[in-house]
Structure formats: C-alpha cells, structure tokens
Amino acid sequence: MKNSLHGGNENEGLINFNRGVGQNAYHLVWKLLRKHCEQFLREIAHKYYFEIYELEVMHDPVHLFAQITPTMNICETLQLFKGISSYKLFSQHSWLRNQFRKG
User: Fold this and answer.
1) Does residue 98 sit in helix, strand or coil?
2) Are 68 and 77 within 8 A, CB to CB?
3) Which of 3, 17, 25, 98 is least surrounded, with the fewest CB atoms within 10 Å of its CB?
C-alpha cells in the first residue's frame, strides 16, 4: 500500500518491536563548544546503535535528528551525546578547561 503523503511505502523507516511497530526518533538541540565535535557525535551514535538522520553543527547550537534504541530514554541519550563529546573535547584540548567553570 502506498502512503498518499510521501508516495512511498507506509512502513518505511519503521522498526518492528516485540509488541508493535514504531519509530523512536528525536530532534535534539544544544549548545556545543567547538565546531569540530561532529566526528565525536558520529562515533557516539555508532557505539550506541543510534541512527543519525540529520546532523548540523552551526555556530552556536547543534541540531541532531536521530533514532535511538527503544531501551534508552531521551534524557540518557542527550547525556551520552553531551557528556562523551565534552570529555573527548577537553581530553584533546586541555587548555579549554581553564576557560570554563567546573561543574
């Protein structure tokens, strides 16, 4: 059966779970320190089996549209992206630690 809105298969992009079919995708936006952290975000997504549909690192915010695993909630996902990317950034550029308050 064709989807009248998109002209494609109506099950396109959906995942079969134990008791249903669905999609667990979110648009995440947050402030990032450095523009070259895009690679960090892609590595995190690969490690935790997230599928990035769209990623744009702008001057100030990061816009990330990704599908996450059904066993992980959105708070844990955002914590992983923010925490691991900042850890890697500060590990590679230790001088940044003096520029920002600890916390």
Assistant:
1) helix
2) yes
3) 98
Instruction: Check residue 35 and give its pLDDT.
Output: 63
Stated pTM of the model: 0.69
d(CA 68, CA 49): 7
Domain of 55 in residue numbering reads as 21-98
Does 13 map to a domain?
no
Q: How far apart are CA 79 and CA 68, in angstroms?
A: 13
- For residue 94, tell me if it sits in a domain: yes
Per-10-residue mean pLDDT of the chain, 103 residues long, equals 42 69 84 76 94 86 88 90 87 78 62
Helix ranges (DSSP H) in 1-103: 38-47, 74-92
Q: How far, in Å, CA of 89 to CA of 6, rounded?
A: 40
5 in a structural domain: no
Query: What is the CATH number for 64?
Result: 3.30.70.1290
